[in-house]
């Protein structure tokens, strides 16, 4: 039996099914350049497939700071796996090499799928956590 040319395999090597979303449907990463901050807003699932997109967006944001903080809005993330944690850790290390270093400002609200892994790994000690974007931009952490 011959497969149509457009068929793709899932990352685990299985056949594509109608219930399995394409990678670009798993995550949405938007960058908003504000005069007072660079905001990277993420929604969806941050896992092994999508963490490279988050890492790339953060790397670009950190390269073009011009004295502004980087705010990572994770409020709309419904799954946050260890690859997402690694992306935040690597971005924090990258930020530390910049003049006028400031830690990443991470907006988590009470989003348990994101906050719990950050707390369990101790990353809450190295990341500045906030309840909303405006608090993160102002730099007054509540956590």
UniProtKB/TrEMBL annotation:
Region (Disordered) residue spans: 1-26
Domain STAS: 27-140
Domain of life from the UniProt record: Bacteria
Matches recorded under PROSITE patterns: STAS
Listed Basic and acidic residues bias regions: 1-13
PANTHER family documented for this protein: ANTI-SIGMA FACTOR ANTAGONIST TM_1081-RELATED-RELATED (PTHR33495), ANTI-SIGMA-F FACTOR ANTAGONIST RSFB (PTHR33495:SF13)
Family: Belongs to the anti-sigma-factor antagonist family.
Protein name: Anti-sigma factor antagonist
Taxon lineage: Bacteria, Bacillati, Actinomycetota, Actinomycetes, Pseudonocardiales
């Amino acid at each position: 039996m011959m497969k149509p040319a457009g068929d793709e395999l899932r990352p685990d090597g299985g056949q594509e099914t109608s219930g399995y979303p394409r990678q670009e449907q798993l995550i949405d990463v938007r960058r908003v350049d504000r005069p007072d901050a660079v905001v990277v807003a993420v929604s969806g699932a941050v896992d092994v497939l999508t963490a490279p997109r988050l890492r790339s967006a953060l790397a670009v944001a950190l390269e073009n700071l011009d004295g502004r903080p980087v705010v990572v809005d994770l409020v709309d993330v419904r799954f946050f796996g260890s690859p997402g944690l690694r992306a935040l850790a690597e971005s924090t290390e990258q930020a530390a090499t910049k003049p006028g270093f400031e830690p990443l400002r991470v907006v988590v609200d009470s989003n348990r799928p994101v906050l719990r892994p950050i707390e369990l790994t101790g990353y809450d000690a190295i990341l500045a956590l906030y309840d909303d974007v405006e608090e993160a931009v102002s730099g007054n952490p509540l956590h």
